[in-house]
Amino acid sequence: MISVYNTFDPLKEVVLGAVDISMINLQDGHKKKKIEYIFNQTKDDLKTFQTLLESYDIKVRRPTTIPFSEIKTPYWSMAGTRIPISPRDLYLVLGDTIIESAMCEPERFFENFYFRDIILDKFKDGARWLSMPMVRHNYNGTDWGGTDDQIPNLDPIMDAPSVMKYGRDLFVNTIGAGNRLGLQWLEKHFGDAYDIHEINNPMISGHLDSQINILRPGLIMTPYEPKLLPTYFKDWDFINVSTDKDRSMADTQELIDSRIQDGDFGNSNLVVNCLSIDTNTVVMFEHYKDQDKVIGELDNRGIRVLFTPMTNSHFFNQGVTCMTLELERHTPEKIIKYQ
């Protein structure tokens, strides 16, 4: 069964993403060779990451392959689908419930099929399983994003990392990868069980796991000043991180294919995007070993950093939590209201 109430209790079971080699065939020329090289390198890095997690007695699940096909709906068509490297984006796990998200990108319409066997296993073991309504992705020329990253409010949309969970409190970002209808869908289904707090600040756009990381009760890691975050966190201890390295690495990236990469390079602070094994241990990618300040801040609070290689993290624009999805964290008191 699944059990996830926060981002920091001892991790017991996790899904780890993968690359889909069949997507190489959609490329041509030097791009095909580049993608093939990156995919092979990433397969090795993901295997190393899996070994690290398993060394801490964490059960690791991996996606299965699905047939390559042309996607056709009444509104649009596309060859292939997004590769299954970031399961975090697809599923919001609240306690014993798995929610399949309504994604803001059409290329992700059938991406959840890569993970269907895993979700079926959990459903058979007793987990609850819901899906948000399918998104039509046909808005008659409506500009997606625009200058303020607003998602058209014509269907409920909510990428799963637009929600940050902390016991009975949920923080929901309605800018960049979710909209007000997505928030209302969550409120109607879970408002009786959870206190839901909207984050609607143009400076904090997109997936919250690359903006804010709750490391344990009272401790948060973010590049933002406390005044930009909900007042809920006003008395917390903040580890403020620099995004200079992420910006310099993101600036060198080229968007080759949105079925392979997340093109929102400007709003992804991947240094924040670390995975807690427990309240005293986090995993970060190896290229952050030179971030002495944040590593020192973590060490001062009794948190050890484990490093794992991911050479092409910024090419994919995916961090440690993006590439993982918790299925079980051991929470001694089942459902916690922290404040």
Structure, explained:
The protein has 339 residues and is α/β, with parallel strands linked by helices. It has a single domain, classed as L-arginine/glycine Amidinotransferase, Chain A (5-stranded Propeller), CATH 3.75.10.10. It is 19% helix and 22% strand. It has six helices and 17 strands. It has helices at residues 29-54, 116-124, 180-190, 244-250, 292-300, 313-316, and strands at 11-16, 59-61, 70-72, 77-79, 91-94, 97-100, 128-131, 163-166, 169-173, 195-199, 213-216, 219-222, 237-240, 275-278, 281-285, 304-308, 324-329. The strands form six sheets. It has a three-stranded mixed β-sheet with strand order 2-1-17, with helices on one face. A three-stranded mixed β-sheet has the order 5-6-7, covered by helices on one side. Strand 1 (11-16), helix 1 and strand 2 (59-61) form a beta-alpha-beta unit. The mean pLDDT is 93.
In terms of topology, how is this protein built?
Blueprint (H helix, E strand, L loop, with lengths): L10 E6 L12 H26 L4 E3 L8 E3 L4 E3 L11 E4 L2 E4 L15 H9 L3 E4 L31 E4 L2 E5 L6 H11 L4 E5 L13 E4 L2 E4 L14 E4 L3 H7 L24 E4 L2 E5 L6 H9 L3 E5 L4 H4 L7 E6 L10
Parallel strand pairs: 1-2, 6-7, 9-10, 12-13, 15-16
Antiparallel strand pairs: 1-17, 3-4, 5-6, 8-9, 11-12, 14-15
* Helical residues, percent: 10-25%
Radius of gyration: 19 Å
CATH topology (fold) name: L-arginine/glycine Amidinotransferase, Chain A
Known CATH architecture: 5-stranded Propeller
The total number of structural domains is 1
**Largest sheet features:** 3 strands, mixed
Q: What would the principal axes of the Cα set say about the shape? A: globular
Number of E strands: 17
The main sheet orders its strands as 2-1-17
Name of the CATH class: Alpha Beta
